[in-house]
UniProtKB/TrEMBL annotation:
Function: Component of cohesin complex, a complex required for the cohesion of sister chromatids after DNA replication. The cohesin complex apparently forms a large proteinaceous ring within which sister chromatids can be trapped. At anaphase, the complex is cleaved and dissociates from chromatin, allowing sister chromatids to segregate.
Region of interest: Disordered: 1-59, 1053-1082
Gene behind the chain: STAG2
InterPro entries: ARM-type_fold (IPR016024), Cohesin_Scc3/SA (IPR039662), HEAT_SCC3-SA (IPR056396), SCD (IPR020839), STAG (IPR013721)
First-listed, main subcellular location of the protein, grouped into a coarse class: nucleus
Biased composition (Gly residues): 49-59
Localization: Nucleus; Chromosome; Chromosome, Centromere
Biological process, per Gene Ontology: cell division; chromosome segregation; sister chromatid cohesion
Classification via PANTHER family: COHESIN SUBUNIT SA-2, STROMAL ANTIGEN
Protein name per UniProt: Cohesin subunit SA
Amino acid sequence: MIAAQDLETESQLSSDTDFEDPDGRSAKTGKGLVSRKGKKALGDKAKGVGAGRGPGVGRVNGHHQENGMENMTLFEVVKAGKSATQAVVDDWIEAYKHDRDVALLDLINFFIQCSGCRGAVSGEMFRNMQNSEIIRKMTEEFDEDSGDYPLTLSGPQWKKFRISFSDFIAVLVRQCQYSIIYDEYMMDTIISLLTGLSDSQVRAFRHTSTLAAMKLMTALVNVALNLSINMDNTQRQYEAERNKAVAKRANDRLELLLQKRKELQENQDEIENMMNAIFKGVFVHRYRDAIAEIRAICIEEIGVWMKLYSDAFLNDSYLKYVGWTMHDKQGEVRLKCLTALQGLFYSRELGARLELFTSRFKDRIVSMTLDKEYDVAVQAIKLLTLVLQSSDEVLTAEDCESVYHLVYSAHRPIAVSAGEFLFKKLFSHQGPEEEGLPRRGRQSLNGSLIKTTVFFFLESELHEHGAYLVDSLWDCGSDLLKDWETMISLLLDEPMPGEEALTDRQETALVEIMLCAIRQACECHPPVGRATGKRVLTAKEKKTQLDDRTRITEMFAVALPLLLAKYCVDIDKVTNLLQIPKYFDLDIYTTGRLEKHLDALLRQIWEVQDKHTDTEVLEACSTTYHSLCNEEFTIFNRVDIARSQLLDELVDKFDRLLEDFLQEGEEPDEDDAYQVLSTLKKISAFHNAHDLSKWDLFTSNYRLLNTGLQNGDMPEQIVIHAMQCTHYIILWHLAKVSDGTSLKGDMVTLRKQMRAFCLMCQRYLNSINTAVKEQAFTILCDLLLIFSHQIMSSGREQLEPLVYTPDSSLQAELLNFILDQVFIDQDDDSSTDGQQDDEASKIEALHKRRNLLAAYCKLIVYNVVEMNTGADIFKQYMRYYNDYGDIIKDTMSKTRQIDKVQCAKTLVLSLQMLFNDMLSELGFNVDRSSSAFCGIKELARRFSLTFGLDQMKTREAIAMLHKDGIEFAFKEPSPQGEGGPPLNVAFLDILSEFSSKLIRQDKRTVHMYLERFMTFQMALQREDCWLPLISYRNSLQVGGDDDTMSIISGISSRGSTVRSKKSKPAAASKRKLPEEENSCSSTDAVWMNREQNVQTPVMMHSPHLTSTVLRDPKKMRPEDSYAAAYAMPTEQHPHQPDTIDYNTQVTWMLTQRQQAEARQQQERVSMHYAKMRNHIRRGSGLMEDDEEPIVEDVMMSSEDRLEDINEGMDFDTMDIDLPASKNRRERTELKPDYFDPSSIMDDSVLNVSMF
């Protein structure tokens, strides 16, 4: 604050001081001074105290002058942020006291410039124009090229500006609260201006002024609150003084207190008038503005008002705006409503006054917990938690249940908020009967809460998501979830008399929750599906993690053997309990002298594997042994001995049982089969995590599989597990060979075993049992991928002898399996084998089929099988889009990255397959409106979209796709005999879906290639059966924006585009055709060089196009050099008897000319092509460096006729000058009709001589 002595005169201090006055004594003085002058509006500029004097100290021409920032406007000072807001406001107040018009003009321009307006309000405008006129004038000063303004600009500077802008308004009102705001001039002017700006159609004005008005209102609310407090204090002092005895009463003090209360009342009335003006003039209109940011500002600030000055604003008249806006369509605004209400419910006193509002809008708040915006849903749950704290009776059981299930949400912030709500509701209420209970153990308070958690877990019927429940409660209830001592007590101890024991289902749920809590404590990250990215643990979190792990080991090293002994026969409990040792700190077994408990644990694991044949339990036992067999710890030898003894027993038992089982001449009974199967299951489960190579199990398993093939009566589960075990044997053998720890002959042995096993699996693909076929297919796919050429990567060239490439028969069998087992209808799925036809079984079967398809697609992606085998997969894209669309699309993307051309060939092959299937079903008369044909066309459209927008990257692939499509369309002759369309001509309609992916040069090349398959009669056909050919040719016609022309095939076109910015010698720019085309030796043009002996319909060969001007190779664009690869080779076509004579064609065209003369004449007259040509200077040596000569030779439709053909014209060469279009905009002005050959060749139109 600036002291009074810092001001210039004592008289100014007494009349216009605006610094701290806690008692409000100077307010009356200032107010009285202004009241004699009368209330002034914006246009009334009567001078006050200090009128006619120069600007205040520290300001020049109304501009700030501090810290070396001379001649800076108020906006620039606030934007720079280098001066303290307090000092800036103090300088402005000082200037206002010297000349309030100049200072106020500076403040008005501050708001205008903060809106992003380049204009400024002058003194003359300030004196003579109304608000609306000023705003209209400023609107004209806006930059129309940009919609940005300071409040919407990004970057740290503008974020800081928004804060500084709001602070400036708050400090300004705070510093002026004792005098200036009551002068009926400054506030009236500012409020009037902001109200007008907030009603502007210019978003920048509306946004900025609304923010300023709302911050101004907030500052006035603070002033009103201070006045209310002062009034209350004054009233209490007055009452205390008046209640004194008459002899002790000070009448002078009573009179002063009465006068002071009157002044404060008058000031408060003034403030209320200002607030009403802002609220009714700005808020009421802008809280429903079209811009979400403006609506959010209004709701945010009204929440502040209700919290600051609850006596005035916390009522239904203002709360209704927040309630209504909770239905806003923008999440940002709904979020502000919830945060505003949270500020009110944090206080129990304020929350009690919101009962009516809560009852009215409670349902809306509850529904917002399912908001599509995650941030809104999180804040809605937090608001309900605050409502729950304020009163238990507000939310019904249905309301709470709608929040409870969100603890299983995949979005972690929502789940954590719901977990906090659940914890507050169920676990935070401690009754008087629970006082004095022990802290730990079965009878403790935590014991009761853990039971409640178990009951909730079971009632939610989502028992497979225990990890999600624990993660949701972890932040607020980790102490409860870490009370493993109480959990163990609940599982092991007998219930007390009168206590209800846990049921088997409840015990299973408790074991699962206990395991999830252990995992959460040791891994310190959310479960799968909730991970929000890898987070680095803090030092405190790491210490907590180590402490928890130590406590878990010490506690469960003793308790786990007891738990396993009690629940040894329970599959679910044992499976979860056996996962606990992997979180142990194994050093504690030694340091804590817990070896006897380790031995007890190993004995219990042996008991479990001996009693169980369930795969999950056996794999859990195997994993536990793997966790305990760590060579880094001293307990390794003890565990390794126990493991070896167990495996020796299993292998010996398996060999003995196998001999009896495979003994010739005897039928194996069910008991023998069961014994073999159970032992084989255990060996497979242990072989997954442990190397059992020293027991040589390959021979036994291969013998078992071979016997199953020969006899055909082997139980399917034995075959499946024998395959799985053999698969593990080969993988462990490969691991040893890759590490270099194997013997010399091990690689040869591995190669033999691998190939023999692959052949065995291939034979099992023909099994009648679906499960066996699926297992054989899955293992084959894995082995083919592992032993593909990829095995030699990363410097492992020594493994080259192990590379195994599937032959064509194996590839065909794998593909047939996919087609038979994957691409089937849901109702036809035979893999359920009598299971109940419910949704769960259907989903499980679908997942199995998706895994099979993904396994095969990986073979395509990694080039293990031929890429063209993917055609049978790709053709199912539309039919099975919902089931496998993502897999097929990703496969297409990966194959395109490997080989674009081959991928394109595969796509068109898939379309050809579908087309052939359609012909087989519907016959050769193709109905292009049929659902089958439309489906193929739609699939082609989807394929086309996968090529993306960059045509240059897919140029060669698209060209090859068209080439294969054209060859397919003309491959088969017409079933109707000579003169009819080819059998597959309708395929061209499908192929046209890819025409848009061709660049202009390639359209010409593809069109020329198409003509090689066409006869002259084909070009003249217009029947419906020829429409696919017509539409495809039209799709290859380059539009008018490409400076092209269409002429009859057989007429050569030599076109030159004279569009050079630099003059070049004509001789240097010309080359003869043979030299040009012979230089094009790229292999990409092979498909254009078709041999003459190919039996396809051939129309008369078109002479090649030659440009009269050739560009220097160094200046050619990429597409120019690429197009050369597709140039037509020079060929001498022998005369063919069935080819129409060239002169006969010309004669026919001249005859047709007369029939269309009237129509063509009108078109020629209407064209303004000649006007454009008159401005072109002809010259053979001119050419634009940035454009290529654009000449095209395409087949003209039979309706286009040549009108004027000079008898002396040389048909072999013809120079045609096209307009010199310098950009796309000019090209789009050219219509296709401009390239009518008759018009171009008419001398009267061109006004140039033809030669």
